[in-house]
Amino acid sequence: MTENNNINSIRVISFGYKYGPPPFAHLVEDVRWVRNPFYEPELHAMTGADAPVQEFILAQPDVVDFLSDMRNNLRRRLRGFSHSNYHETLIFAFGCTGGKHRSRFFAFKCAEMLAKLTVELGITAEIVVEHLDHE
């Protein structure tokens, strides 16, 4: 494995569509297809960083498959960008209605995957998670 330092940093963003259009990103995922924890009284005040919200999301149909597909997609993108002399910050964004539950959950999962994939691919990039909107 050859170390490749073309990618300097990676930003993973969560946002809420009700606050406007998605930010510029190399990948934007609309995760409003996942049932919203906002409407569950015991989860409403929590965020996608809280274990009960994560369990609620992971228990839904197709989420585990989506995460597997996302990992493969991220691997392809990282390999492609790392070999294309791309020296900018890569940005991956996840949007839900308010930016509090689903988008944050997927942003955290994405950052976890990226941390492992960058090591696997020999990429030394800083990974930063940012939450643009708060409900």
Q: What string, H for helix and E for strand, traces the elements in order?
A: EEHHEHE
Portion of residues in helices?
25-40%
Strand content: 15-25%
Query: Structural class of the helices, strands and pairings?
Result: alpha/beta
Spatial extent as radius of gyration: 15 Å
Strand order of the largest sheet: 2-3-1-4
Largest sheet features:
4 strands, parallel
Number of H- or I-type helical stretches: 3
| Topology, number of strands | 4
Mean pLDDT: 92
The domain count comes to 1
Low-confidence stretches: none
Please, could you describe this protein's structure?
- By secondary structure, the chain is of the alpha/beta class.
- It contains three helices and four strands; from the N terminus they run ββααβαβ.
- Strands 2-3-1-4 form a four-stranded parallel beta sheet, with helices on one face.
- It starts with 8 loop residues before the first strand and ends with a strand.
- The model has no long low-confidence stretch (mean pLDDT 92).
Quick rundown:
The chain has 135 residues and is α/β, with parallel strands linked by helices. 36% of the residues lie in helices and 19% in strands.
